[in-house]
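=== RUN LOG ===
request id: a7f3
mode: sequence -> structure
chains: 1
length: 191
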Amino acid sequence: MEKKPQTPNGSPRPQRGAGKNDGKEQHRINNQIRAREVRLVGDNVEQGVYSLQEALRIADEQELDLIEISPNAEPPVCKILDYQKYLYQQKKKQKEQKAKAAKVVVKEIRFGPQTDEHDYNFKLKHAVEFLKEGAKVKAYVFFKGRSILFKEQGEVLLLRFVNDLEEYGKAENMPVLEGKRMIIMITPKKK
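=== RESULT ===
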């Protein structure tokens, strides 16, 4: 017969907080906490250091869970909350942080080593729009066949391109030759 966890007054402790996350819980709760003393924080409790039994008793009185928030602190930091509600709030926070994380958009602009003036201006206009939108621009010169002999022309073209975009963005590095492509990345200027 399995012995049920008990509260300080001897009555069986209900295992709240159990549910979908059994087996892969991120935090220790209730009787899983191993420390002798814990530091309680939160709105619904007087903050301070308590013995584990006292903290469990306080959680039990409020019909909530004792959750170990910071196990590496000395003594471990705990909160008294409903565990499922706490997990829900954590997931919600993570989702919000993910949404706020800047999504970097990279737009590519391709040149040939002997791009004429009209094409150059057309692509320059597009690059200005991309940088104004906040996207990075990856400009590259593609060398076909024997056109690799015009590496210098490609480099001059990319440096001119960066120079013409100076007002809207700045180059992350100098043009780099990767296989048959000479590439340069341009980052938009912060407003």
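=== NOTES ===
The domain at 106-188 is CATH 3.30.110.10 (Translation Initiation Factor IF3).
Confidence is low (pLDDT under 50) at residues 16-24.
=== END ===
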